[in-house]
Specification:
The protein is an all-beta fold. 0% of the residues lie in helices and 30% in strands. The chain contains no helices and four strands. The protein has a four-stranded antiparallel β-sheet with strand order 1-2-3-4, with no helix packed on it. A hairpin with a 7-residue loop joins strand 2 and strand 3.
């Protein structure tokens, strides 16, 4: 008999906070297409000194990429004696089973060279691990 285990984590997109004046800011397309410009950076301007911008703290239209992660394992036990005192267990484990990328947050500091650009990855690529365990 082979036993399977898995852990999954799904999260919706989280808010991005920018405190400046704005016009239309949403850019359509897939996450991979928007890495160089996650949102319309030209719509933000620096507010006058000692004033606040008109961008809300948590904007409903500016969102980071969501999370969909699957970890899985399978193992099988092989017995060598009739009373099962000695057995060998084979295990296979996978982290980030479907190798889905989780992009980092875009640069949020206006005036910086990476403003609106996603330049990081928050998770690791797929990792596989195999092991043998002898019980006696």
């Amino acid at each position: 008999m082979i036993l399977l285990n898995w852990i999954t984590r799904h999260e919706t997109n989280s808010h991005i906070s920018i405190a400046y004046k704005f016009k239309a800011k949403h850019i359509s397309g897939s996450a991979q297409q928007r890495l160089g410009e996650w949102f319309n950076t030209a719509c933000f301007t620096q507010p006058a000194s000692f004033t606040f911008g008109n961008e809300p703290r948590n904007d409903q239209t500016l969102r980071a990429n969501g999370v969909a992660n699957w970890d899985a394992s399978a193992y099988k036990t092989f017995s060598f004696t009739h009373n099962e005192n000695v057995n060998l267990q084979f295990r296979a484990e996978s982290l980030n089973l479907f190798n889905r990328v989780q992009f980092g947050y875009p640069g949020l500091q206006q005036g910086s060279s990476n403003f609106g650009i996603v330049s990081s990855q928050l998770n690791n690529p797929r990792q596989l691990q195999f092991s043998l365990r002898l019980n006696y």
